[in-house]
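Contributing new records

If you add data, match the layout below exactly. Sequence lines come first and carry their own label; structure lines follow with theirs. Keep one chain per record. Anything else will be rejected by the validation script.
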Amino acid sequence: QLLGYTAVAYKLPAMLFFLGGVAYTYAFTRLFYRKITAQLAALIVLTAFHGVLSNADVRAEPYLLGLVIGAVYHFARLYRHNRPADLLLGALLTGCALMTKGLFVGVPIGAGLVVHWLISNDWRELLRPRWYIAVAVALLCTLPELYCLYAQFDSHPEKIVFGQTGVSGIRFFLWDSQFGRFFNTGPIKGAGEPTFFLHTTLWAFLPWSLLLYAAVGRIIAALVKQRRSAIAPEYISLGAALATFALFSLSGFQLPHYINIVFPFFAVLTANFLTALTPLGLRRWTVVQTGSGIVVLLIMGALLYFFQPAHAVWGWVWLAIISVVTVWQFRGGTLNTLVGRSIGSMVALFGVWNVLFYPSLMEYQAGMKAAEWVNASQPISRPTAIYGQRAWSYEFYVNRPVAYIEYGATAGATSLPTQAAQSPLLLLTSAQRADSLAKTGLVVRQLARFPYYHVSLLTATFLNHTTRSATLDPWVIAEVRAR
């Protein structure tokens, strides 16, 4: 209501949840560690590559990041101080997380606490009633979701979902959406691979990924040697991170952004590792992080060279300025140097990524560009439809209702010839489909053409400006009417 149907209105809530997650990361870390460790953990979450990227390509993860670490923070405070308000707040955030993504969200929230109690020999905490009350309240908080699913699906068995009728939304929420993906038996399937998140974290958690691997290795080695005092004052972060990582790695359906929800726990582990480094260790890791930053700069330079976005020269200027300022400002082998150079590489990366690369990339999101053209040049009274494909960005940005239409009538829908006979249509479709329609007896006049590429699935062939044209599928806005 305040901002209209705009990208800002869509993305702003996710950004606020993400920033809430950063604040909760600081607060959680401060429960157990020194202030410098909490500050580092917050900085790490703020600058991890895929965490920032998720605020541009918004899915469920920015919301989950804030909800999961928020719930863990309140439950950790409940464990330490036994305040009823923390039970209610932790359960509320858990319930919201469950409604956002399903039952498996309980793993990062609950596993960390359980692992902490087991390693700390405080397993009797599992018998305390307050935790079962918290679970009950969290499940109670999911009732709005269950009611909405019943109202939309279970009470309407005639609806066609995944090509079937009689589909239960409640069953999908409780089973198919999570367990179905895990066991690869639900309507949404993938090809899981056990090492997927090992190499995904390497780039998704840049520039901190190597430090994270070293931090986890150090903790596990110390636990094996039973040197608990040399590790950390809490094992919640380790338990939440490893349990969720293992769950995702064993799943039959995997996507890179899944791992974002445990970035706060990754950040705590990494920050604790950094503050425990000796002067020699700091100097060595400064060299490693400087090398990592140079690799990032080379990759962004290659992106500018091969992709050639608009105003690419300013990208080169930006990379040069950030490189010089970072090296000049952060010298020596101190913690400030290590952290400053790491963050500097991300500032360089996202300056190019957000200001130059993404705007140029959006030129190939044909649905959005077509909507802009229709909004600017066609009367709002003219009906529009999408033929033969999906184009959610067109639905979102065009300033009038959009219908999906097929040539022949399906499931009671009006056929394209019948609709065109009633009034001329503005049809978004591929150029190939538009040409085929012209052979069916309809009058098809192409008004505008837009290059299309699935921008969330980048390939080297597309990124290279010399081979990009071979990857593009032309979409058109066509006026379609009966003869």
